[in-house]
Amino acid sequence: MASSANQARKDAIRDNVLRPSRVVPYPFKDGKPVYTSEFFGENVFGQAQIAKALPKPAYAQFLRQMKGGQTLDKGTADAIAHAVRIWAMDKGATHFTHWFQPQTGTTAEKHDAFLTLKSTHGPSGVEEITAIDAFSGSQLLQAEPDASSFPSGGMRTTFEARGYTVWDTTSPMFVQRGPHETCVLYIPSIFISYNGDALDEKTVLLRSTEQVAKAALAVLALLEPVPPEQEYFLVDRSLYVLRPDLKITGRTLVGALPAKHQQMEDHYFGHIPSRVLATMSESELELYKLGVPVKTRHNEVAPQQFELAPIFEETSLAVDHNLLTMDVLSKVAHRNNLKVLFHEKPFKGVNGSGKHCNWSLSTGSGENLLDPTIKPETNYRFLLFLLATLDAVQRHGGLLRAGIASASNEHRLGANEAPPAIISAFLGEHLTEVLNSIEENRPIKNFSMPNIQTIKLGGRALDVMVSSLPEISRDLTDRNRTSAFAFTGNKFEFRAVGSKQSPSFPMTLLNAAVASSLQDIAEALRKAAGDKPYPSDADKLAVIRQYIAATKNVRFEGDNYSDEWRKEAAKRGLLNITNCPDAFDQIVEEKNSAVLCKLGIFSKSELQSRHYILMERYAKDLLLEANTLRTILAQQVLPAAYEYRASLASSCAQQKQLGLAAGPELRTLNYTTPLVEDLLNWIEKLDEAINKVHEEGHEPSKEARASAKYLLPAMEGARDVADELETVLADKYFPLPKMSELLWF
C-alpha cells in the first residue's frame, strides 16, 4: 500500500513538472492590446447602466431609495429588472441568482432560469403553452431560499424553513461565465429570516455602516473605505489531492518542515513563478471585467504564498469584491491545475496568511478624515476621529478580538509576522509625540518638518548623498507588522483578520465600536460647548486632551511579540485572550452586547445566535481535524512505518545469515521502534480527547471549550511524533507529498 501511494506521489511530482501552462489570450482589438480601463467593469450592471435604462425621474427615485429616502416602487423595479435581463442575456446569461453571505464563512447562491412558461388561449379556446424569457421586479427584489439548513444559532428550526434574500441596491449586479460559454446574473443580497432576523454577515455590516455615518453626523457626514489585502497559498493540485488533510481541513495536519523554507527571505517580492503569474493574470482579467479594482500582486514571505491588493472602496462593496476575488482565484487556480489555500496557517513553521483590512473614514465628497495633513497637531478634526478610533479599540478590544477568532486563525496569531491576541494600536513616533505634546501642553520636540517630510538618499549615518537621485517623500509613520491595529499614514490597517474569513463580521464589530466612541465624543463636544451653538477650538482641544489621556493604554510602539509587552499589556488592563471560546464570549459580554444592541446592529437574539454558531463551528472544525489526523496516522503513516521496520528487520536478518554486522540497520530500527510506539500512544490519546468532547452532549459552548482543552494538545503531540518519524522513514515508504514538494514547484 505504501509503495503504491508513494508511486502516486512521484507521478504527481512528474506531472507537475511536465504539465504545460494554460494559455489565456489577453483582449486585443485591431492587432493592439486593449487598455485595462476599456474593459474594466464590462460584466457589471451598476449605476451607470441603471441610469441609461431608467427615465431621469425614475432614476432619481432609485437614488433616493439607495440612500434610504424611500422604498423602491414596482414600476422602477420592473424597469431595472427588464433592463438587466436584456443586458445579461446578451452576454449569454441563462440564469440569475441572489448571491448572499450566510454564516458559513463563504457565499451562497441558488440559480433560477429566466425561462418561464406562458399560458394563452387561442381562437379555438385551446390552451397554448409558450416558452418565454422573463424577469420581474419582484424577482429582482427578493427570493425565498430554504433557511433551515443554514446556521441560525437556534433562531430557526427545521420546520421553520422560510427565509428571504433581498437585493442590496448599493452593490452592483454582475455576470460570471459558467460552463458551455453561458453566464449567470449575480444579484448581491442580504439574507434574513421570516421574522426579519439577520441570518447573514452582510445585513449587520450594512447596519453598522449606517450607524457609523449617523454617529459622525454630529461632526460631518462620512463613508468608510475598506480594501482588504488578500494573502493566499498556491499548491499543485495533483499533490493536493494526495493530502487528505489539505482536502478536508485546508491545512497540513502532519508534515516536517523542509530544510529550506522561508529562512533565506528570498521569496518575498521575488520573481513570480510562471504558472502562478498565469493564474494571477487570468484572475485579474476576470476581476477587471467584474469591476473589481485589483491593483497589486507579489510574492509573500513564505514559499508559494502570494498577495493581491485592491484599490480603496466603500465597506460593503469592498467586502463583496473580496469574496468575489476569493471565488475567482479558486476557479482560475483550478483551471491552471493549482489549488488555492486560504487557510490562515496551512503549513506549520512558515508564515500564515492574513486579510489586512485597511480602514479609514471619509466625507461624502471623498475627503479622508484620517489624513493627518502637514500639521496634525492643529488639525482638530483629524485628531478627534483618530482618538475616536483609539477609544473604540481600547474599550472594545475584546469585541475586535472576537471578530478575528476562528479555529484556523488561532494557529496564525502571534507568530511569523501575524499580530498577537492582544489588541493594541500603533501610531508611529511622530503622531505619538503629537499626542504627548498636546496632553502635556508643550511644543512638539525632536521633529523638524522638512526632515520628516523627505528622505535624502544617503541614510541617517551618511553625509555623502547620491546627487543624481531625488529626495523622496516620507510617510508620517513607519510600519509595525507586529501590531494588530496599525496607523499607516492616512488609515488603520487591521492586520489580525484571517485570510479565510469574510471581512464582514470583523468590520461590523469595528464599525460598531467606532460608532459608539463617536457618539461619546459628540456628546463630550456638546458638553464642552455649553450654551454656545458650536464648540470653540479651546473646547475641542479640551476634549482631545481628555481622550488622549483616556486612550494611552492601548497605544504601543514596540514589539508586540515580546514577553515584556505581554506583561506590560496586563498592567495596562488590556485583554490577552488566547483561545477562541473565550474570544467568542466577548460578543455576549455585557459591555459589548449593550453597545451592539443599543446601536441596532444586532438584536439580543441575533447576538445569542452568533455566539452559538461560532462555538458550534469551532468545535466542528477541531473535531474534523482530529478525526482526519487520526485516519492519516492510522491508515497511512503507521503502515508506512511498519513496512520500513519490516524492511530493516529483514535486512538485519540477511546480514546475520551472511555473517555480517547489522549495526547500522539495527541502530535505525532501534531508533524507529520507540517512535512508532509513541505514535500509537498518541493515537489512543487522540481517541480519548475526541470522546471527551462528545461527552459534552452537543452543547456548542461546552464542546468548544472541551475541543480547545483536549483536542489541540492531543493533535499537536501526535503531529510532533509523526513529523519526527517522517524524517526517519526512507523516502520511498512515505505516502504523503512532503512539505518540500508542496512548497516548491
From TrEMBL:
User: Highest taxon of the source?
Assistant: Eukaryota
- Specify the GS catalytic domain's residue ranges: 201-637
Q: Which GO terms describe its molecular function?
A: glutamine synthetase activity
InterPro entries the UniProt entry points to: Gln-synt_C, Gln_synt_N, Gln_synth/guanido_kin_cat_dom, Gln_synth_cat_dom, Gln_synth_gly_rich_site, GS_Type-3, GSIII_N
Query: Biological process GO terms, please?
Result: glutamine biosynthetic process
The GS beta-grasp domain sits at 94-196
The record's annotation in Pfam families points to: Gln-synt_C, Gln-synt_C-ter, GSIII_N
Q: Can you tell me which family this protein belongs to? A: Belongs to the glutamine synthetase family.
What's this protein's name?
Glutamine synthetase
What organism, scientifically named, is this protein from? Answer: Mortierella alpina
